Amino acid sequence: MQLTGAQALVRSLEHAGVEVAFGLPGGAILPAYDPLRDSSIRHVLVRHEQGAGHAAEGYAWATGRVGVCIVTSGPGATNLVTALCDAHMDSVPLLAITGQVPSSAIGSDAFQEADITGITMPITKHSELVTDPARIPAAIAEAMHIAATGRPGPVLVDVPKDVLQATTTWHWPEALDLPGYNPVQRPNAKRVREAAALLRAAARPVLYVGGGVIKAGAHEALRELAEAAKAPVTTTLMARGAFPDDHPLALGMPGMHGSYAAVAALQEADLIVALGARFDDRVTGNLATFAPKAKIVHADIDPAEIGKNRTADVPIVGDVRLVCEQFAAEYGAAVAAHGPGDTGAWRRTVEAWKRDFPFRYDQQPDGQLKPQYVMERLSALTGGDAVVVAGVGQHQMYASQYLRFTRPRSWINSGGLGTMGFAIPAAMGAKVGRPDELVVAVDGDGCFQMTCQELATCTVERIPIKVLILNNGHLGMVRQWQELFYQERYSEVALGVDVPDYVALTQAYGGVGLRCDRPEDVDATLEKAFAVEGVPAVVDFRVDQLEGVFPMVPAGRPNDEIILGPDFSDEEQAAATRREVYAS
Ligand SMILES: Cc1ncc(C[n+]2csc(CCOP(=O)(O)OP(=O)(O)O)c2C)c(N)n1
């Protein structure tokens, strides 16, 4: 069958099962937008290409499928760069299709020419400049496969305008020809047995769970393993929801703003089983002093992660769901052969830490509204029955700390790159992917102003997300660092609470804007926002401008220097620093 390259592209996307694409057209990609009109694929017209990238990410996070975005050459493509880098850092499966100037003009500094495969080479899992229209189906099939398999990530397919306009035939490849791309799925049985033996013998084990567990759909297998081994579980910022927060073995989030129990448990552990996690500096603090007594089992689908930051005593390459399943079976065999492990004293220790050093803040009934209180009420009113998307900053940390997650894919955020402006477009993409769920973006006033133009997209496309701005009038996280580490010499962090008028701005975008500054109004305001149908709802929560996120491990410092914060007494801080361990 004869068709144009553009038709071949759209047909290939349909054939690959793509149901939605986020994008914005321009000269070079124009030919592709013509057949898109007649396609089964829903196209969501964003207001900025960064929004298309994050929306595709949000869709991918929420559904586990590949998120797709389509943009034009030059500035359209470069506007995607942040989202591609974000997806690369957080292993989000993404297909970015970029138009390119005609083949004959490439290299001539043509209008809107940018070497986007070159620019994005280090931040994509794979990229291709398609030079032959007959390659389009195979390029799309391979891109979708590479994005979704192994360690997921972003793939970019750049198609020159003449390739889109040329006549070609369409042929979907039966088998993919990808020599050299063969991610290991099955873990080495001997390694898993060694790991199980270590876990059975450990007195102070911790399962250190990263985002890979959610991506692999390993949460149930993880739970079986944790319960069999009676081992405490810490879920990183990327893994919130992989293990239920209300489970007795749950420690919550580790790291710079993690729970004291999680941080202390990792420091005191005699065995850390890292599952789909990457020993990120925000988790380890100063690496040389991280978990000094622990042996390490490290399981990951990406062999490059193993030993990258911390040497593994038992390295396991493989799909982390298979790892957890085999691990649980081998653990059972080890117990049958050598008797049960004993983590009783350790669990009592960890319980005591959880009890003595919880997240704490002080909401006075007639005092200033605390951001933590808003998060606690959001958690209580939804009961975990929502998909929460966060921006980057203090609000992101409050959300991760105070929301009680009970299921995977209910938490979406920018962990690795820390991209301000992520929340609104990502929530938009998540809502498109999971239209029947309550999707809530928790945003900062700084973040909101970076991508709020997508509220227009939400209104026009009837994507009714909720946006909760924790408006502290500042680039709050930076303000907090200036307070703590620059002797309160505040420099360029004040945004002011009134400009823009978030309620009026939301209304201008066709949404419903609400404002709340008193604790007693929080529940009613949230209910009002949840009840809005068809269009986005935005709440301007006027919160305490000077509140800080605690606990905190100062950047680059040992985790042992964890600061509990102003809501704890000196005696409590001293006890936390002493850190009594009841297990031997
Ligand atoms: C694109 C981008 N620019 C700068 C930063 C550095 N940064 C991290 S948090 C933060 C402040 C965020 O302010 P806001 O959105 O108001 O959230 P808050 O911390 O007040 O909750 C900044 C500037 C970043 N993470 N991303």
What is the secondary structure topology, with strand pairs?
Elements: E1 2-4, H1 5-15, E2 20-24, H2 30-36, E3 42-45, H3 49-63, E4 67-71, H4 75-78, H5 81-89, E5 94-100, H6 116-119, E6 126-129, H7 136-148, E7 154-160, H8 161-165, E8 167-169, H9 189-201, E9 205-209, H10 211-215, H11 219-229, E10 233-235, E11 250-252, H12 260-268, E12 271-275, H13 281-284, E13 295-300, E14 314-317, H14 320-338, H15 344-356, H16 371-382, E15 387-390, H17 394-402, E16 411-412, H18 423-433, E17 439-444, H19 445-451, H20 454-460, E18 466-471, H21 476-485, H22 502-508, E19 512-516, H23 522-531, E20 537-542, H24 570-578
Parallel strand pairs: 2-3, 2-4, 4-5, 5-7, 6-7, 9-10, 9-12, 10-11, 12-13, 13-14, 15-16, 15-17, 17-18, 18-20, 19-20
Antiparallel strand pairs: 1-8
The protein binds thiamine diphosphate (TPP).
* Helix percent band: 25-40%
Instruction: Give the overall average pLDDT.
Output: 97
Alpha-beta classification: alpha/beta
Let me know the largest β-sheet: 6 strands, parallel
List cofactors, ions and other ligands.
thiamine diphosphate
Q: Would you identify the regions where 5 or more consecutive residues have pLDDT less than 50?
A: none
Could you tell me the strand content as a percent range?
Answer: 15-25%
Gap from first CA to last CA:
73 Å
- Biggest β-sheet: strands ordered side by side in the sheet: 3-2-4-5-7-6
The value of Rg in angstroms is: 25 Å
Overall body shape: globular
Number of strands: 20
- Provide a count of the helices: 24
